Amino acid sequence: MIAGWGYNARTAADGEDALRQMEAEEPGAIVTDLMMPGMDGAELLRRLREMPDAPPAIMLTAFGSLETAIEMVHDLGAFWFIEKPLQPGALKLLLSRALEHRRLRADNERLARQLAGQGVLEDLVGVSPKMQEVFSLLRQVGPTSATVLITGESGTGKELVARAIHRLSPRAAAPFIAVNCAALPESLIESELFGHEKGAFTGAIERRRGCFELADGGTLLLDEIGDMPMATQATLLRVLEDQRVRRLGAPREISIDVRVLASTNRDLREAIRENRFREDLFFRLNVFHVDLPPLRERGQDIEAMCGAMIGQLNQRHGCQVTGYDEAALAALTAHDWPGNARELRNALERAVILAGAGVIRVEHLPRFGPTSVGAAVEEAEAGLEAITLPVGTSVDQGERALIEMTLRHTGGNRTRAATILGVSVKTLFNKLREYGATEGG
Fold first, then answer.
1. Based on the domain organization, do 135 and 278 belong to the same domain?
2. What pLDDT score was predicted for residue 385?
3. What mean pLDDT value characterizes the chain?
4. Are residue 179 and residue 263 in the same domain, yes or no?
């Protein structure tokens, strides 16, 4: 029947046979019965969910009900299910939609790879080699079910990385729940994570589902995991091992299907040495490690990040900022950003609001301290040598002399020199290439 619709059809005796055939040739879609000898349809769906690019599966069942539909589609990841006796027209329509769904998914993944090559992956922006390496790791781990430990300084974008992993996974349509372990009182953290029954403790006036239950079928981010109390760490380890939770005050456990991501700006190995973090939990979380570099180590990303952030901030505040002038860019690239991407976004948000429209100028930016343009100019005025040029010196010759003197003053630091001169690093580099000048003059 399916072959008569123009498809190249293959048959398999059961789920195990289907998986063996998939090793040699990957199908565009799978139509499977629920009840089969050996590996049944439900187990086949579970095995398919573990694959990074599994084909969509349509389940045939004689036990049609709303509960069956929820289990097949939501819990086991089927594309859809269809009741027996089989209606050929319904199957033909579903098969067509399943193949179209896979084609669109492949197109989206290809577009994501292209954007990543241009410095964009989900909500992350970065053209530097270090961020491109991070993007590569995320594309590899995203489609899997592996637990991921995300580390990096405060403000580097660890939650954005977690959300990117979720969106790159087969769980993208399911919930993404983030909980800040450092923000919860020790007395409430287990209730927040695992839930509680009515009357489990003083103030528990009703049953409440915890974050693990809320994230069932999806992804849970445990942010600031290094601040989790030791007692809760022991409970968390059991949950990760068994994929079962017990609400506080509940008589029995509940099965869950949650992918756990954890993030921290702390050194967990040092915390282990100081008996503040369980070593066995660390190894359970650190199946796959993604370390985010601080912004000061990837300054070449700042211009691309500014472009993306300004567009978002325009939309949020109803502004029409088109960019920034060279002096503003010089100030942004010269700052070392101890607050990382969060500090950059806050600085740009202020600047976008103050500018309103047109371009961001230096006066729209906060004073960053010693690395701001104003401070850099003041420092230059205090420390730079004077230039004496003879009558008849051309503008180009005077410009070159000023650039070379500034580079001598900064010890060859081009970023610092560009800030003092009020130009972008790119402009300074082009000038030096034009003059054939060395870094020191």
1. yes
2. 54
3. 84
4. yes
